[in-house]
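Dear support,

I submitted the protein below through the web form. The confirmation email said the job was done, but the results page showed an empty box. After a refresh the structure appeared. I'm attaching both so you can tell me whether what I see now is the final result or a partial one.
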Amino acid sequence: MSNATEVLHSIPFDPLTGAISVPIYQTSTFVQDAPGENKGYDYARTGNPTRSALEQLIAKLENGSTGIAFGSGLAAIDAVVKLLSSGDEILAVDDIYGGAFRLFTHVYEKLGIKVNYTDTTRIENVVDAITPATKLIWIETPTNPTLKISDIKAIAAIAKANNCLLCVDNTFASPILQQPLELGADLVVHSATKYLGGHSDSIAGLVVAKEQVIGDKIKFIQNASGAILSPFDSWLIIRGIETLPLRIKQHCANAQAIAEFLIEQPEVESVYYPGLVSHFNHEIAKKQSKGFGGIISFSLKEDTIEAAKTFVTSTQYFKLAESLGGVKSLLCHPATMTHKSTPADVRQAAGVRDGLIRLSVGIEEVEDLIQDLKQALEKVALSQKSKVQVAAV
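What the results page shows now:
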């Protein structure tokens, strides 16, 4: 069965009415037949039919036992960390999403959970950094924003050998391109705000557990902490998933063409995209993914915040905004936006330079997007030329 067919036919119709669209059960509570006797639901924080439909859908798409939906991607990450105890350690990828870094560093480290960061693209780094206290390995692949690729299967083997969990943030790839649980991971998280929703109109997070016992623990944390996804947002994510295979196909095609355009531009120093043969670990990306995604990052030769700001404020179709994964193209300057809370020395050591720009390539006509980038690069070149002339005077 193809991805598109599986996705569409994994979404149930309503058995009560036959409605082809999953109903939005906008209710806070459910009438019971007798104390403790109900139709499967008693209170909407604990369970809701619309949210349950989404949770079952993402579990099926990721080939896991249990899906759990949260009010944001960070709430999903938070729930996974709550599996740990004071004194435990997390081994995390160094080029990590700024929000996850903020949560790990400013919330959980003061509660006694230490976080060690390493470049997980090299397996020897993972082996060297793991300790007896490591209980969770946390990777993004591709990473945000420098698109590093880590070998999920190899790291899963290391995690198993050291009796710790492996969680993969699969936001950039989506289950259409990559299925970490099939490669040995224990947990997958998604910011469903991004590709799963796909229309920049909702905030949501998802966790999928491979084993039921871990899924039950996350489900308990969801209910105990209360960071649930609303019925309407659950419906929006379900609706977004219906077109996910088609959108991902176009995102990938557009991104590949743009990456190949960017590597030829004189104003560009480096291009980070797993679909380029020159990308470190391109072969691993080919092996564990069915495509390379819609995110590209690149560094300007003039590695300054000023040059980056000139570029990101000069595009027309690429809108300057936080987030990614929507049908409309977006761009951001990580150093002053998504990774602003990360200390400059830490982010630069991970490759997040002042002149780094991240593109979320949408589904517009690719020729229009390339032309937009071209004229913005020309403005950067013109600005640099003007500075040189002023300096000469």
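Response: this is the final, complete result; the empty box was a page-load delay. The domain at 246-392 is CATH 3.90.1150.10 (Aspartate Aminotransferase, domain 1).
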